[in-house]
Protein 1
Amino acid sequence: MPSSKPKTAEASFRQSFARLKAGTPKVLPVGTPVSQNNVAKEAGCDPSALRKSRFPELVAEIQSYLASQDGARVPSERQRLLKQRQRSRSAKDTIKDLKAQRDHLASLLVEANARIRILTVKARDLQTKLEQLGADGHVSPMASKSKAKATPRSVDMNGDK
């Protein structure tokens, strides 16, 4: 009765590598990507059994295959979920940052409005005092809003003091 298993571990790994490349694995689910660990799992071994020190040529073949398939590799479901989770986290972080900015700016606005109210009350009080002093005749009315012209000064041109 011939055995269906290859006689050597390397032959078993090579067969599982070929099945994974063809997309017809026997142990792993169909569509499982080719990787060094998945080749070992497909061969029915622990992933640590397929080591570069024991099978340098096979590991080099697997790595060169992976390098050539790098652009064509379809992300696994786990990788897709991780990427989606990262996008979700970054969106949550962005929302959190925007809320913090909004709260900070709202507090600055409240402070500015309070300061405006205080200054408005002070300006009204000063205006009232000014009007009272003007009515008593102690203060001359303010000049028009145009700028006062500078008065010329006599300057000693010779530098004598």
Protein 2
Amino acid sequence: MVRGVLRMYRTYNMIDKNPVIDKVRTLVQDEGLIKKLGIVHEISGVSTTTLDNWFNGKTRSPQHATIAAVITSLGYKEEFVKDHAIDVEKERKSGRAWLEKRQEEAKANKPTKKSNGHSKPNTRRKWTGKSWEK
């Protein structure tokens, strides 16, 4: 995945930062460690820089393993809870339509030149022993 690009999903959208960052911040605050990130680092192995970037910096979507390291070190467990029943065939149809729309948008917005404004270099040249020929 390219850094600096947020991936869009049909069933999950975040505006600025992944909401899990706020949940972890709340857990760290509840443990009285928000001003003591060095202690969180000691017990989780996650660097204080990473934690600071989650809470105050530019990190928008942290890795799941890193989140899990912090929450389990604080004595919490992650749970998945069934919220509602789904119609799989209906969801497949909706998902397919959503993907097709995104592909059409991407095709319509595809730049004709490289992003730096230069044309693609001509790479079909041959060395003659004295100079390059096209």
Protein 3
Amino acid sequence: MRSETNWQSLGIGIIAILIFCLTIWALFHELTQAPWQFITVLVALLGALITFAGNLQIQIRNDQKGKKVEIYDKVINLFFDSILGDKLGKETKTQEEIVKSLSSMIPDLILWASDDVLNLYIEFRTGNNQILSFGKLLLAMRKDLGHQNNGMSEKSVLGTFVNDIENL
């Protein structure tokens, strides 16, 4: 991945330098002779550069998606096991186990989570209404993975596992 990104960055840099050089050359030489031909070439090069940069961003996002899914899955499963563990026949996690699990996830969240997810995780850990903060965190994770969250709210996503959500 890193070597591909370096080649792509080099390609973008070469195209940008080429466009800059062509612009300077055209201003001092060709603009008076064939301005429309120059403008056509310049627009085509700019379009190619914009497309290339957009594709690079899409590729980076797609490369990161697998890691994000893995991390978000760990976070969600930890909370579901903590909240619903006894109802699902699993051994209830102690406070120490939960803290240990959260601590082990923090480096991955710092490296891979989006800015929104990371900020909401911090709000969840330090905020007053942790259950609503957790709902916001779940929605941010879904959005980061590409979901639109149309018609979704913190309470609606929390309603998938909290019975008396109206009382929050």
